[in-house]
Amino acid sequence: xxxxxxxxxxxxxxxxxxxxxxxxxxxxxxxxxxxxxxxxxxxxxxxxxxxxxxxxxxxxxxxxxxxxxxxxxxxxxxxxxxxxxxxxxxxxxxxxxxxxxxxxxxxxxxxxxxxxxxxxxxxxxxxxxxxxxxxxxxxxxxxxxxxxxxxxxxxxxxxxxxxxxxxxxxxxxxxxxxxxxxxxxxxxxxxxxxxxxxxxxxxxxxxxxxxxxxxxxxxxxxxxxxxxxxxxxxxxxxxxxxxxxxxxxxxxxxxxxxxxxxxxxxxxxxxxxxxxxxxxxxxxxxxxxxxxxxxxxxxxxxxxxxxxxxxxxxxxxxxxxxxxxxxxxxxxxxxxxxxxxxxxxxxxxxxxxxxxxxxxxxxxxxxxxxxxxxxxxxxxxxxxxxxxxxxxxxxxxxxxxxxxxxxxxxxxxxxxxxxxxxxx
Length: 424
Prior knowledge:
The chain is mainly β. It folds into four domains: 2-85, no CATH class; 100-200, Immunoglobulins (Immunoglobulin-like); 222-319, Immunoglobulins (Immunoglobulin-like, Sandwich); 324-418, Immunoglobulins (Immunoglobulin-like), CATH 2.60.40. 14% of the residues lie in helices and 38% in strands. The protein contains six helices and 27 strands. It has helices spanning 2-13, 21-30, 35-45, 53-61, 66-74, 79-85, and strands at residues 101-105, 109-113, 117-126, 129-130, 135-139, 154-157, 163-169, 175-183, 190-191, 194-200, 229-232, 237-239, 248-251, 266-270, 272-275, 286-293, 300-306, 309-318, 324-329, 332-334, 337-340, 346-353, 366-369, 375-383, 386-393, 400-407, 410-418.
């Protein structure tokens, strides 16, 4: 029985079916294969989709190193070219390629009034881990004054979360300019390194009202519906039960585009948890929110409410790697023992799940019994609902045998027996 299972597992591992995006995510987060093995698998099978720049950024945040990204790029040149680029095996295993450092801007566009200070924030990741203590330079920020002589560019050091915040003084005149983030020591950084910095005219101050005998109440600054909302971190992907890779950023601005500091914001989340959420905007009119994904492989939604304004940010956690098999007989869960009626076929539904119980697609479903005279496997099929195993009872009389089920790299063993026939 074990030989049959091993042979079938090797046949499933040698499939030439192109990998889907969900397959790549499970391979990177599951830990069952090394990066070199994942790269070889991509080189052999290629991909069933064409990755976008956002896909590459998401894969790098999940741990894809330079070798895996290179094999993904080789898929565009055809399967033959990808196979030719795969190095021949040598007697000594080559050391694993270092994981590339990726740059993730938390704001792709920053707007500030002329003559004011603004913050440009970026995150630095090595795979899924933050890179603290890295010294970064914001190229082009020193010439925001618009004069012929350039000042020093802004410099920032990443904190324990891998986040660096540059303080930039806006130009004295309206201007739009791309600023580029580089490493101070010249290290090559992957990901998006450019942030658009826009300087807008300052709002004109209203003339002072004439003095009156009674003091009028001060009119509160209202946030603009078009300039208030989530500006970074939305749409990111992750794994259930884990912390989101980058924080969400909410900005509140008035009708002139100026930031509103100290504005109360009410936060709520579904299928997740907010980690030490702030309750009002900071001096830059921003709110930084750290999110932990919930236990379900469904959308995580964070809602920010400011007065009558309601803004939502949606994140997408995926199920974790396969951890156990759920075996159902009708509506009943089968855990250790399975009793069958004589002369009646029984159907089992097999579902792989992660450690939190989220269902996963069925891959390589196998079923085998120890004693074929007691029980036989009559059929094994898979569809969109899961895996289906049909069992045909043999010798009655309470005899028991082992029933082994395997799918998606996870195995479970049951003890199956056939009841005695009832005498008329």
